[in-house]
Each structure stands twice: as structure tokens, then as C-alpha cells.
Amino acid sequence: MIINWWAYLIWIPAASLLGFLITYIFAGILRWQRSIFLIPYVVLTTLFVYTYARWSNLNLTGMISNNWGWGIVGAIIASLLLVRAVLRQPVSPRSQGKALIFNSIWLGLIYGAVDSILLSVLPVWITWQAFSIFDFAATLIGKIAIGVLAFILSEVVTVAYHWGYPEFRSKSVMQPVIGNGICTLAYLLSMNPLAAIGSHVVMHIAAVWHGPKQTVQLPPHYPIVAGNKGSIQQTGQFQ
Fold first, then answer.
1. Residue 230: inside a domain, yes or no?
2. Does residue 51 lie in a domain region?
């Protein structure tokens, strides 16, 4: 089956809409606690990515094995930048014992991996598959142009996804835009998705250990409210 180039790009607004609806409904409206919120997010995003991979005949094994060494190098360098950003935020209490292990896997490994695939890896996959059929894609200028477009589309999906969280409906959305931009750039420069996935996972695990209540890398956060004779006052603190 021959797929037109523009048919691939339709998946970009679809991914943006999916990300926005998940965060808007389950965090913005239902205000589900973080660990529970991840259930529909992980399930729906995984189904979406699987559907795209089957539809586009994506060679997942080939993409991961190609330039895997540079992917690891990119993951290490990007991780250093992202962890530094985590550590500059206020420290908050973290879980202990088995709960910490569970959170490191659920909020760190799984949440981070799914985030990176939806926000960084998938947009790059889509963009490259859309334009690889053209001759200019084999030239240096063509590769740079496709890379720039892929980076922009990744940020579009990132903004749409985070805009569904109430905490990011302001200029604060620039924080995840910059952070995820580092992951996407690491992927584009290394030409291996391990750079984006690895660095995003490390960032999430660092946020779990630093304290999820104050680290912006682990949304959703909900303001603590205090009632006083029927009134509600925002304290500015998060849980």
C-alpha cells in the first residue's frame, strides 16, 4: 500500500488532540491523582502509537538499532541537562521503601517513556516517514530541513498535551517546551530514539527522587485549597 506524504502528517494533529483531551479530561476536569491519571494516559497513548506503527509499517527494531551508540551518548548528555533542571527546584517529601521503587517504575520509567514517545519520538517518526519518499530527503540540506520541521511539530504536540493541564495554561508551559525540546534535539542529532526516551526517563526518575510534589516534570499538580466560612483560598502550594 502506497501512502501519500500528507497522510502521515494528519497524525500530528491527531496526536496533539489525543494528548490535550487526555490531560484536559482526566487532570483538568476529573482531577485524578497522578498515579491513577497515568492509567488512561498510558493505555490510550500506547494504543495510538501501536495503531500508527501498524498503519505506517514502521520498522521499530531498525530505528532503535540504527546508531544506538550515539543514542546512548545523546541520552547521557541530555540527561545531565534535564537532571540539573530538576535539582534546581525545591525539594519535597518522597515515598520510601517499596513505594519508592514502585514510583520509580510507574512515574519514572513508564511515565517518562510514554511521554517521550508521544511528544518527541512519534512526531520525528511521522515527519521523516512523510518526506523520506522525496529525493531531497537524502541531501544534507533536506535532512536539516526535515529535522527542523520535526522539531517544530514535536513542540506543537508538546504544547497541546501540556495545555490540558491547568498548571500549564500560562507562560509556565515554556518549561516543558524547553525540557522536551532538549529530548527531541538529542534524538535528532543522534538519529536514534533512545536519546529522547532515555533522557526523558532519567528526568522523571530524578523528579521522583527529588520529590514529586514540587517538580514540574511530574504533572498533574493540584493547588491545595483552604476553606474559610465558605470561601476558598488558593495557597500556591501543590500536592
1. no
2. yes
Number of domains observed in the structure of the chain: 1
How many angstroms separate the CA atoms of 219 and 207, rounded? Answer: 11
Contact at 8 Å (CB) between 114 and 46?
A: yes
Q: How far is CA 35 from CA 41, 201, 203, 209, in A?
A: 10, 16, 17, 15
Whether pTM > 0.85 for this model: the answer is: yes
Residue 133's contacts (CB-CB under 8 Å, 6 or more residues apart) are 5
Length of the chain: 239
User: Which residues lie below 8 Å from residue 126, measured CB to CB, with a gap of 6+?
Assistant: 8, 9, 11, 12, 15, 52, 153
Least Cα distance to 85 among 17, 228, 10, 182 occurs for: 182
* Cα separation, 78 vs 70, whole angstroms: 12
Residue 226, domain member (yes or no): no
Domain range for residue 129?
A: 5-219
Which grid cell is 28? 483538568
- Is position 232 within any domain? no
Q: Residues 160-196: pLDDT tens digits?
A: 999 999 999 999 999 999 999 999 999 999 999 999 9
